[in-house]
Amino acid sequence: MNSKVKNILKILFKYVCITFILIGIYIISMLIVSLIPSSWMKNHVKESSETLYKDDEKVTIDLKYKEENIFTFTDALMINTAYSIDSKNPASFMLARKNYIPGQTKKVYSDGQYNLGANKKYINPNTGDLYQTKELYGLMHDDNIEDSYEYGRYWHGYLVLLRPLLLITNYSGIRIILAIITLICVCALLYLIYKKIDLISSIMFGIALLSINIFIVSQAINEILVYLIAMISSISLLIKYKKIKNIGIFFFIIGSITSFIDLLTAPLVTLAIPLILYFLLAQKEENISIKKYLIDILKIGIVWCLGYGITWILKWVLLELIFKRQIISNAIEQILYRANGGHAGKLPYTASVVILRNILCLSNTVIYLIIAICILNILVRTIIIVKNKEKIDIKENLKKCIPYAIIFFLPIIWYLVIKQHSYIHSFFTYRILVISIISLLILANQILEKKKE
User: Fold this and answer.
1) Which residue in 48, 127, 241, 317 is a FRET match for 406, CA 20 to 30 A apart?
2) Does the reported pTM lie above 0.85?
3) For 94-104, what is each residue's pLDDT tens digit?
4) What is the DSSP code (8-state) at residue 123?
5) Which residues, including other chains, have CB under 8 Å from residue 420's CB and lie 6 or more apart?
């Protein structure tokens, strides 16, 4: 066996070990929080159900220049799932049941192929729409719901945070906590970008985060978590960049954590935002070749996808082995459904419609503002270059722009692949365009960068 093969096997073994360690951490942490009796959080869950009932399935906020939406539908499901954990059988966390109350529940329905089920009182007979907020309210207000539904295709790792939080506060309190954490993360991220890269990059990231109304996003548990993962990962990268020996492992872990916590909201941001910062940091340290740019993007993208995908698949495997649920085929069918739409796999709209729908959710005001900032940046740099007779290396600048030009298109690729989900939920999937906004601002800034002496 030659040294090259040995090295590949050594790397694979390392990734396998990391995977088992991560899965072990996930299972142990979920078992620990599942031991908390649901009776301890009952009052806070009941109060939360009342807030969510008033908010309804989706809260619309009028910002004058556009309407912003908070998806409370999934938050109600998450709180319902958190309350429905059976502390006497903590391993049942893997089933991720809702409406489950020992002694009251008479029938449990397995995770289906398409949409999650609901008690018939909370299903619109004409459209088939589910009313998660009303169902949670009914569950907590003596509606005597006797049917429970599993949602085992996901890890539901958010329960590690949500169950302890429900011990101390209700949904309104959790929103305040998430807003504070978001503010701290945004401030820490922008400060570190300023210190480790430069002020202009920090301002660009700030503009991008504000363009998707990050602080409004913090009011939805299901939506803010991926952005917190992206920001915390980015902060870690900025602090430890020079000490990270294997950037592939770093992104593999990020992908895995995203899969553990997220319910398919905007997972792409946990890859792209740290990836942009990785290239900004690398460009300050060395002169990178086009080949290395392409290899790094491909390598990091693959390992992130592996971390995300393997973690997700292992949940299906464990559920089939331990609880004998037919989850793998159902999960694959669900993925195809989310990608192509409809049980027959035919979308009533084209890929271009999906992309345009998401872009327009940004609002014309934001789109015009971003374009204006880019044009202004280029004009100011041009004036400075002409006035000071500065030299620029267009060829080198174009080379440095390559990674950001590629990353710019990642949200578009996502919309093309996950078409049905991106169309139906465009009011929150549009926010992954923060990736394209950051990339565009960086491109406008770097194209006329002064030549280094």
Assistant:
1) 241
2) yes
3) 999 999 999 89
4) B
5) 337, 338, 339, 340, 341, 342, 347
